[in-house]
Fold:
Amino acid sequence: MRLTTPIPVLAISLERSLDRRSRMQAQFSCFDCFDWCFVDAVDGRRLPKAAAMMLSKSAQWSEHQKGSIGCFLSHVMCWEKLEAECASHAIILEDDAIFPRLNDIFSIDLPSDFDLIFLNERMSLPILDEPPVCYPSIRGVIGHSQQDRFWGAGTDGYLISAAGVQK
Structure:
């Protein structure tokens, strides 16, 4: 399966992060194949302690990771937006995503039943001279975990289908 244009893109960004928003706008200004918009992120710093505790089930974790909880809720908000708009697929990016080859998404043979495809640099196999290939996510996770065991896989950039949103 090949994607066609325009692809909806939701860029998650805190409303106050004007510098990040400017950088994203500059990156997208050279693409006419994406129908993108900003989604105002949930500011984890403003979450009540009780809400953070309920979501994390850990008093210690919730107090120090409110930003992570806010980020997660921002992704959920994007999934709900895609579901409400009946989108068949979309790209979701955090405002610090690095996507040097985002335009290559049109040349990848995608499985017709995909749920989620990582597009972020951290989950890509380090073969930049070859055409992009769609690998099972587990290959990226295994490769990533062997390279650096202290960082997570990351959701800073991914393509998600309507089926993936439902899951």
In short: The chain has a mean pLDDT of 80. The radius of gyration is 16 Å. Strands lie at 7-13, 34-40, 89-94, 116-118, 157-161. Residues 66-84 form the longest helix (19 residues).
